[in-house]
């Protein structure tokens, strides 16, 4: 469940706990870097590009999820490719918050924001060991195109679509 004001959204997780979603701020950078290091995320180069584009023109978005105590639970970002209606997405959830629905919330919020910014497609890279992310993308309710080029799989999410027979809750934020 998500409640939304102009900048922040409170999210109730499957275990009854809650986090607050907020736009990435300069103060979040060190916590995000620690989270990426702790999970040895192979998409670190993508997150570096997101950080480098802060303060520059162009469509991009980044959000963090924090507990009531201020602990970073997750991070997601997307950047548009120059001159196109497509972009790239990546996200990471602290393993202590895995399987609670936070990754899905970050994905849905990010795809909705990218669609609002005029993008029609977001590309996601899957690396060996990304089984949980692959399952989430399979079940996200959007039409997807999978490029199974080992070792890195690319998944294109077609924004604004819904797969027939899949129940995708209407956005609440």
Give a structural overview.
- This protein has 173 residues and is α+β, with helices and mostly antiparallel strands.
- Helix content is 25%, strand content 32%.
- It has four helices and nine strands; from the N terminus they run E-E-E-H-H-E-E-E-H-E-H-E-E.
- It has a nine-stranded mixed β-sheet, with helices on both faces.
- The longest helix is centred in the middle third of the chain and has 15 residues, at 102-116.
- The radius of gyration is 15 Å and the shape is globular.
- The termini are close together.
- The model is unreliable at 1-6 and 168-173 (pLDDT under 50).
Draw up the topology in text.
Blueprint: E1 2-4, E2 9-12, E3 18-23, H1 29-38, H2 44-53, E4 60-67, E5 72-80, E6 86-93, H3 102-116, E7 121-126, H4 131-138, E8 143-147, E9 153-158
Parallel strand pairs: 6-7
Antiparallel strand pairs: 1-2, 2-3, 3-4, 4-5, 5-6, 7-9, 8-9
Please count the beta strands (DSSP E, at least 2 residues each): 9
SSE-based structural type: alpha+beta
Radius of gyration: 15 Å
Total DSSP helices: 4
Rounded mean pLDDT score: 80
- In whole angstroms, the N-to-C terminal distance is 10 Å
The percent range for helix content is: 10-25%
Describe the biggest sheet?
9 strands, mixed
Strand order of the largest sheet: 1-2-3-4-5-6-7-9-8
Describe, in short, the structure shown.
The chain has 173 residues and is of the alpha+beta class. It is built from 4 helices and 9 strands, in the order βββααβββαβαββ.
């Amino acid at each position: 469940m998500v409640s939304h004001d102009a900048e922040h959204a409170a999210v109730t997780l499957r275990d009854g706990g809650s986090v607050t979603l907020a736009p990435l701020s300069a103060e979040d950078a060190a916590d995000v870097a620690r989270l990426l290091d702790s999970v040895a995320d192979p998409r670190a180069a993508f997150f570096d590009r997101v950080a480098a584009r802060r303060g520059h023109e162009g469509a991009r978005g980044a959000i963090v999820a924090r507990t009531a105590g201020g602990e970073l639970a997750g991070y997601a970002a997307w950047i548009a490719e120059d001159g196109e209606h497509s972009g790239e997405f990546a996200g990471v959830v602290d393993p202590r918050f895995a399987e609670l629905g936070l990754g899905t919330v970050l994905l849905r919020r990010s795809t909705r924001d990218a669609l609002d910014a005029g993008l029609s497609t977001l590309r996601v890279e899957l690396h060996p060991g990304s089984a949980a992310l692959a399952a989430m993308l399979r079940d996200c309710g959007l039409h997807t195109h999978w490029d199974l080029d080992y070792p890195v799989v690319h998944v294109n999410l077609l924004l604004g679509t819904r797969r027939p027979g899949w129940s995708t809750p209407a956005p609440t934020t």
